[in-house]
Design brief:
By secondary structure, the protein is of the alpha/beta class. The protein is about 25% helix and about 25% strand.
Length: about 220
């Protein structure tokens, strides 16, 4: 199975840290955030990885190369300047991904065990998403659990998911956000969910990055 790490975003909320650096290259516990994802995927037995690139993508490519130095095989999906948003980036990379694949947002940090996603069996056109408890910056959450009514308690999308490629087959290429599609397909019972109670952080602002690094340093991570 392959995995895709989404790393093409501009990272405007992380300015000035991302003025000359893509957000997934910012350091968490003295390593680029992207390196943590690659290590976690390798430990889960996923060694074929696709990374999409846009803003400052050459710096990702020059650091990780073909992935051999990190024990994985990396392919790159180059997007136009400005990127294609989440769903648009996945659709653009479909020729590299195979029938079923894992997707991880490059700007989150978590100890979620991705190997559990490799055990799932999805039917054509289905997806499975990992939800987490709502952080202070997203108190209303994003999606209800799939076995609950849409009006139930909503949780935050972790940016960790698995897809059958047919999930995207009727969607046009181009700039396209993923959230509205997931919401629509959840209503159609084509998306399953799980709630993860564990470490998860959205590295969305310099303050959140600093807070995470301070916490990990105190834990001697």
């Amino acid at each position: 199975m392959k995995a895709m790490i989404l790393a093409a975003g501009r990272g405007k909320r992380m300015m000035p840290l991302t003025e000359h650096l893509p957000k997934p290259m910012l350091k968490v516990a003295n390593k680029p955030l992207l390196e943590h994802h690659i290590n976690n995927l390798r430990q889960a037995g996923i060694v074929d990885i696709v990374i999409n690139l846009a803003w400052q993508g050459d710096k990702i490519k020059s650091h990780f190369g073909d992935g051999a130095a990190f024990g994985v095989n990396i392919q790159y999906s180059q997007e136009p300047e400005g990127g294609l948003e989440t769903a648009g980036g996945i659709i653009h990379a479909l020729p590299l991904l195979g029938e079923q694949f894992v997707v991880i947002n490059g700007d989150v940090f978590s100890d979620y065990d991705v190997s559990s996603l490799t055990q799932l069996h999805l039917h054509s056109g289905e997806a499975h998403v990992v939800l987490v408890e709502n952080p202070s910056h997203n108190p209303a959450g994003d999606f209800a659990l799939s076995h609950m009514s849409p009006e139930s308690q909503k949780y935050t999308f972790s940016g960790i998911s698995r897809y059958h490629s047919d999930f995207f087959k009727d969607l046009a290429a181009g700039v396209l956000a993923l959230g509205p599609i997931l919401r629509e397909r959840l209503a159609e019972h084509r998306v399953s969910t799980e709630l993860y109670i564990g470490q998860w952080n959205d590295i969305g602002t310099p303050a959140r990055l600093d807070e995470l690094n301070q916490r990990l340093a105190a834990q001697d991570f």
